Amino acid sequence: MRSASVNHSIGLTRTGTTERRLTARTHGSCGELARRIVGSAALSRYDAGASRAASSLASDAPLQGGERLRRSAGAPAWLATRRVPASARDFVMPQRHEQYTETEHLVWRTLVRRNLQAVEQYAERLYQPYIAGLKDLGLDQERIPTLEAINAKLAPTGWMAVCVEGYIPAPVYAELIANRIFPMSRNVRHMAHIDFSPTPDLVHDIFGHLPLLFHAPYQRYLQRLAAMTARAEASPWDHALYLANRRMGALKSDPDAPRDLVAAAEAEVDRVQRHLLANPSELTQLARVFLWSIEFGLIGTRDSYRVLGAGLLSSLSECAALYEPGADIRPFSIAVIEKDIHFSDHQAQYYLFESYEQLDFVLDEYQAKMRLRAGSAVAGVM
């Protein structure tokens, strides 16, 4: 039941920023280059739907220091007391819980029950702090939880969640996490996509990521990796991949989308990914560190390891393959920055780290060669 919402996690869209921080609203030269890279007249009629992640607040007018969102009837109360990074203000939105349909609640109920059954089935193979955090989160199995209810559960951790819609740029995602704010998609997948969501999805974010926020070593590593990602150098191709992924997600979410347009959108994503594979930026490389640790990581020793990655924890059917003879499990090292990932299928290999200290060692090794930029709005990290 892997959700494509892993694609909007730190660098999972491998989205980018230049020194001037490209976002979906960017009109600068690099933003224009990114749009030219993915531009296609055949796909242009889907641009409006594909851009909801950046323009979902248009009806409320652009946020000014968060004031518009704080005045919104659906705004989470914590925004009145905690500053959202400037780079994220146009992407954070009210959950609008009352707008969820009974069908969306049914999708939530179906997936949560299915996942909880899988957690019970594979309990001995899962990272125990995840199981403990799942209990601490106390998910409502019947109805989609409200953002306020989630934040009440997260309060003891020092973290909180905000709602976003669809894909958001990786630097925006990273800067939120570096400030202990988890960006959670408000979207619930369509029943037709119950096993795989073509766009970022609430189920993956809540079920895969939030339970481990109760585990202090995990939070610290996640926050440090996010801080580095928020300051990483990028190329216009990173932003081009963000735009291409966003467009592809809009097409795949439309049951009536012509197959030739879907194929063309997939081809654009593949083309940009191939370029980034051959010419990776710092943002791309740190995205891969995130993927192979936070999304698909294993922890322990070769003879005794547990599943930790959110992409696996929200798609527990893949866990069985990890414990079959011949599973390709490799030691985690800085070499993961050269290894790309498959979003729509089981991985060909997985990476195992023995401890968070090993993850920190890899970050130390990578940080030593980074061209870190000043001006990151990250507090209390590194």
TrEMBL record:
Biopterin-dependent aromatic amino acid hydroxylase family profile domain mapped to chain residues: 99-382
SUPFAM superfamilies in alphabetical order: Aromatic aminoacid monoxygenases, catalytic and oligomerization domains
CC cofactor: Fe(2+)
Coiled-coil residues: none
Keywords carried by this UniProt record: Iron, Metal-binding, Monooxygenase, Oxidoreductase
Family note: Belongs to the biopterin-dependent aromatic amino acid hydroxylase family.
PANTHER family in the record: AROMATIC AMINO ACID HYDROXYLASE (PTHR11473), PHENYLALANINE-4-HYDROXYLASE (PTHR11473:SF24)
Protein name: Biopterin-dependent aromatic amino acid hydroxylase family profile domain-containing protein
Protein's organism: Sorangium atrum
